[in-house]
Amino acid sequence: MERKEIIFSYNNTRCHAMIVEKLLGDERYIGEMDGFEIWQIKGGLFDQFGFVAIEKK
Fold this sequence. Notes:
Layout: E1 5-10, E2 13-19, E3 28-33, E4 36-40, E5 51-55
């Protein structure tokens, strides 16, 4: 089964980052977890689903 998301805690909130192949270019770096970089999608208010993860190279 292929992993599709990373669940983590950010600002005391349980968050989900969808694993993507590449970034769009307007994200803000949050940190690393399990070999992935976590990025917050820019625009809009803080949202527990407003994150993406890309495999660290």
